[in-house]
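name: query_chain
kind: protein
chains: 1
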Amino acid sequence: MRGIFSKGFEKPSECQTLGIKPLLDGKNMLLQAQSGHGKTAIFATAILNNIDTNAPAKEAIQAIVLVPNRDLARQVTAEIESLGQYLEPPLRIQCCVGSPNTKTEEARDERIALVKTLRITPPHVLVGTMGRIVDLAEGRDRSGPVVWLKNTKFLVLDEADEMLFDCRNPNGEAEHGGTAKASSSNYVMLQGLARKLNQGTQIVLVSATFAPETTKAAQEIFPRSSFVLNTLEDRELNRANIQQFYVVVHRNDERVWLPELMQLKLSTLEKLVSIFANGQIYCFCTNRSQVDMVMKANNYAGTRYTVNIEDFKSGKKTVLVCTNALARGLDVQAASVVINFDLCDPQRYMQRIGRVGRFGRAGTAISIIPPYQVDKSSGRNYSIQHITEAYHNTINRWDFLQGDYPPRDPFVLQLPGFGIEQDLLNGAREAEAEAAAEAGVEGLSKGMAEMGVGN
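structure:
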């Protein structure tokens, strides 16, 4: 409890109220809630409540948390470490990320140091990516297994839908039409880990969304486990605290060649970034090539754009250009705007915009689209209509290029960018713009404090 109160939490979110008790009662769970509702704190609380830090070294590893990427692994590790900082004897937690393919001397040295640590002082909690944990549990590099799971009490899959997105049937055939080798599938690797667990291990799958394939995969991988499904109501899942808009880039007709469409999108992106100049922005692209294109177009002295997460977190750069790989887990409290340079499927759309509006804070999401992605009539895979029908959320058209502005409701007024965009466009004095931005940030900080969100 001291760890919880030390982080400034005063009362649980609705998600935490629903999830903590069943986990403390030993239930296996599929926990669904959008980003920013404190899902990590739920399973961290359950883990720490049952950890025996007096356990002998050979029985030390009692909880394993699997995550889809390195950044989320480090973030989850820090969260559990913070909540468990007052345990006695002290909690040992290890973050394990990387690839078993040690191509450089530095990478090999890091792995040797990690193996040595795990063997001499095994942690109570192990957090890492699937490949690295499997590598350590199976001893793929001929050094033999380093991690033993027979005493593991908890196995958590954070962002389970992402980790099992390529869910496959037991024969290794891709259920999403993919052709990747089954041996590299998370499904197959997780099956291998599941066989090493004892029958009483508590299984927790956490995600902002649960596709039918994910729940099916969970039952196949853990056939002896029955799951309790805890999910927030639709009003929580549709992100009502995030103002959602789309901007249509077009000429008089809808026939726009791809190079011209990209140029129109780049121009629109530049204008949007200027409007939200006083905030931090995620710019999501479909693939790495598109990220490179956006960065190349904005490669000039003093640019606000970056692909470096640390530069974005520190505030050195204010626009993070990224792919869907960062649509989950990354938490930058100062960020309030998501710009979708390209539209995506409804599930990933909700994951992207979940980077803002965390813990009920205000947020804004804007998608830059051609005319044919407004509705389903064109037969395209992705459209605004696909998203609104899937999640019952409201996405309004914003013709800001024609001088139109969104309504200023209480959510929007809290955003640093929205309070001053008219002044910025009209060429107001820089000092006045900065003062308005500071006032917006102070108001947002006060709101966060009232919700019990610590620094």
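note: The chain is about 40% helix and 15% strand.
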